[in-house]
Amino acid sequence: MKSIRDRPLKLLFSVYRSLIVCLAILGLVLIIGTIYGVFFHNGSTYHYQISALDETEEGQIFTGIGQLRVFTADQKGSLVDSKPGVVILFVSFIYDPNDKAFSEELVLRVKDFREIIVSYLGSFLISELQIMSEDSIKTELLHRFNAILRLGQIESLYFSDFMIVG
Questions:
Q1: Which among 76, 50, 73, 75 is positioned nearest to 63, based on CA atoms?
Q2: What fold is seen in the domain 50-165?
């Protein structure tokens, strides 16, 4: 009769022992991975800009602003009887990759660039945007971008996506 009572305890003890072994293996893997990462992996440089920078022959293309969807002013309840609209825009530009200070400023200004685009395009009605030229929008955005930059200037903007949906 003792053997019937001991079976659940033996089962519980074997599960406990298995968990201890798994924990030891996990700890060993963690320690080996840390040692490998510290001594053998040459990852001392940060690559936070890689997704925002693509190389070209003239320099690098900054695409960190990403794709934006901006609601037009008539979305906010204008008196004009017009459909609300959305502007879909992807802005990029070329800059000198050797200027490290300017590169860092660009990455730090991404939020400001996005806010400039949203405030500028969001101030127009969809009917106004449809008659504006893409070049005039680029010129104004370029002027506003360069107004906040201190360590360099952007030469020209490129729109890979520019759609007015309404």
A1: 50
A2: Tetrahydropterin Synthase; Chain A (3.30.479)
